[in-house]
Structures are given as structure tokens and as C-alpha cells.
Amino acid sequence: MIDTNTAPLEEMPGDWQRALAVVAHPDDLEYGCAAAVAGWTDAGKEVAYVLATRGEAGIDSLDPAACGPLREQEQRDSAAVVGVSTVEFMNHRDGVIEYGLGLRRDIAAAIRRHRPELVVTLNHRDTWGPAVGGAWNTPDHVAVGRATLDAAGDAGNRWIFPELVEQGLEPWNGVRWVAVAGSTTPTHAVDATPGFERSVHSLLAHRAYIEALTDEDPEAYVRTFLAANNDRFAPRFGGRPTVAFEVFAR
Q1: The pTM of the whole model exceeds 0.90
Q2: Cα dihedral sign for 36, 188, 119, 122?
Q3: Is 171 strand, coil or helix?
């Protein structure tokens, strides 16, 4: 029996043209995926972002009414660094996203609009795993990640959420993979080296959030975090720094 904690990671599938990343908050993608996204857009692939919230509850010292627009703009600036121009927000409330039919419907609608072959989301499990001390995941990440996995199937079935067809969103059964970033049990990886510098600047675009999060110099904090994250699974990918994903084929 193969130990999945030590098995080599496979290269991410490359025979696709469109990807849709669905996460809960501004900065979710930048804390681990941006180097991969930079490589994909460099290769001419189309990547769009859909965020469930504007991250308005993410800065304790800033009222949500001011925080939401600020973090939305930071996310747009951040996405542009790695070649992503399409960034959408679904207006769920930050911190209290609920898994359920409404969330599944919104994500299925986004998948039908963008018609991706690859869908990317964030860790949907309860913890971040033993490698980071078993830290508890947030309810928003769990809800959005799980709903994204389910909505990839919902998007292809015209009898689930038939109101979407009435709105002109025909079923899309073209999702071939859902890739979960931040998984404790990754199966595939992308070499993070070519996109590393842009991933640093992409995360740095979330400056207001980072400055509220740490007293460290923002760039030193970002470089240290991303380098450690990219090195975590390098031994399973030929020693190369990685963006690792757990890939579910459909």
C-alpha cells in the first residue's frame, strides 16, 4: 500500500484552457495559489476569480463598511499581478457563510457563466493538518470549499437549480477537475519557482490586511511565509518548490 504522505506528487493536468477559482475571502488565493496562477496565465490560459465575500469582517480595527471596498480593491490589484482580470464577488457575509443550497446555487451559476475545465478552491476540511499543528480551519473555508466540490456537479445538471436555465445559464458539464489548494493530502503540484516573485507581490497587494495581521515588515513576512509554504511538499516533487493541490477528477 502506498503511503500518500510520502508518495510523489504528479504534475497538474495541463490540457485545459479555462479555470475558475472559487474561494471565501480576498487573500485566500494569494496565501498559496498565486504562483501557480501566474504560470497558467503565462501559458495563455484564462483564469477567473469568484469570491464569496469581500472580506469585510477581516480587520478588527476597520468597520466593515470601509473594510469591504478596501479589500475588494486589494483583491483586484492582487489578481492583476498574476494576470487575472476577471474578479467577481457573490455578496455572502464574511465570517458567517453557510453551506447550503443558496451557496451551491451561486457557485453553480458562476461555473455555468465561466464554463471552466478546471475549478480551484481552498481546503474544505476541518483542519490544516498536523504539519501546521492541526490548526482549525475557518467555517467560511469549509463551507465554500465543500460547496464548490458539490457545485461542480450541480452545474452540469439542468434539473438541479432549474431557475438558472430560466436566467439563461445553460448547464455546463465540462468541469474535468476540481483542485483543492491547502489540502493536507495533496496529489498534484505546480512548480512555484517561475511565479514566485509575482506571488510575493500579489500577496503584498493585500497590504492593509497584512499590516493588521502582523508587526513584521510586510515583504519579509510574505516572502518567509510563501517560501516555507512552497517548500513544504518539495521533497515529494523532485525537490522543487511547489504549489500543491488535491485533485478530484470528474
Answers
A1: yes
A2: negative
A3: coil
